Amino acid sequence: MNQTVDIRELNERIQKESSFVDIISMEMNKVIVGQKHLIESLLVGLLSGGHILLEGVPGLAKTLAIHTLATSIDAKYARIQFTPDLLPADLMGTMIYSQKKEEFVVKKGPIFTNFVLADEINRAPAKVQSALLEAMQERQITIGETTYKLQEPFLVMATQNPIEQEGTYPLPEAQVDRFMLKVVIKYPSKDEEKLIIQLNLLKQFPVASKVMRPEDILKAREVVKDVYMDEKIQKYIVDIVFATRDPKAYKLDKYVDMISYGGSPRASISLAQAAKAYAFIKRRGYVIPEDVRAVCMDVMRHRIGLSYEAEANNITSEDIIAEILNTVEVP
């Protein structure tokens, strides 16, 4: 009985605390037409402290989305175009000799910001990719002998172009795993595209207003941690992840030879954190199975290794996840 009262109180508190979600969404919708899933994914990443890998053809407002989010939160933003000749120092910063001071001084790189857009991350060599991924994981950077903490909130949104693969350096599986979400963006509908044309023909393109501060996001993250998750939901998450490791145990025999490796414990953690953030966005103080299902595809699609047999049969990780969600018992 006590728990019911607590849940009710928690629900009321989270409804109050999450009211800003609608305000940010409204500001983003001023600038971005459609792409509801992209906006939700950005908010899930932001509220759970996870980074996002975006895949989509050019021109689908990937850059515009993160810039608009940064504007509405009044946060610092940097766009880094990844190219084959980029060096880790171009990203992190380096020591330069100051003749005036007659000593080496630190020149910080563009990564010292709140929101980083790593544009076409697969265009830069492995050295640069791993430098960025270290910053994502540790949230700190070492230049010379000094380690510098990165500002919070710190969110990396990396983009990948799926159509041009010549001269690119695909991210290794172990590094892709550091992204909480991999979001695949689709083309807009006809009506949405008409609206996009109208917006771009206006004398002045709409701009998002500043409606929040970075400190508000840090407070909201603490509230997201309080969202209640029942043990049954935790078991459901574990079952989904274990089904990718041992499909036979879940009567998914046809996928035994299709999966070379399944989700790691990081997948389970990310799925739980993302489900909590999604419940928060939906103004709820507790997680329901639908929250897990809503974020599952984005959390898991880059964490399942496909065998040659799967590729030969045109089976994708999305097909496997959809089948797992249909098979694993919902609490």
Please explain how this structure is put together:
- With about 325 residues, the chain is of the alpha/beta class.
- Helices cover about 50% and strands about 15% of the residues.
- It contains 14 helices and eleven strands.
Gyration radius, rounded: 21 Å
In CATH, the topology of the largest domain is named: Rossmann fold
CATH superfamily of the largest domain, by name, is P-loop containing nucleotide triphosphate hydrolases
The averaged pLDDT comes out at: 86
Instruction: Provide the low-confidence segments as ranges.
Output: none
Largest sheet: 5 strands, parallel
- Coarse structural class: alpha/beta
Supply the number of structural domains. 2
Tally of strands: 11
Q: Please report the first level of CATH classification, the CATH class of the largest domain.
A: Alpha Beta
What spatial order of strands do you see in the largest sheet?
A: 2-5-8-1-9
Sheet-strand content, in percent, reads 5-15%
Order of helices and strands: HHHEHEHEEEHEEEHEHHHEHHEHH
Distance between the termini: 21 Å
Anisotropy-based shape:
globular
Share in helix: 40-55%
Q: Can you tell me the CATH architecture of the largest domain?
A: 3-Layer(aba) Sandwich
Oligomer: single chain
The number of distinct helices, counting runs of at least 4 residues, comes to: 14
List the helices and strands and how they pair.
Elements: H1 2-17, H2 19-31, H3 36-48, E1 52-55, H4 62-72, E2 77-81, H5 88-92, E3 93-98, E4 103-108, E5 115-119, H6 126-138, E6 140-143, E7 146-149, E8 155-160, H7 173-176, E9 181-184, H8 190-201, H9 214-225, H10 231-245, E10 259-261, H11 265-281, H12 289-300, E11 305-306, H13 308-312, H14 317-327
Parallel strand pairs: 1-8, 1-9, 2-5, 5-8
Antiparallel strand pairs: 3-4, 6-7, 10-11
Helix pairs in contact: 2-4, 3-11, 10-11, 11-12, 12-14
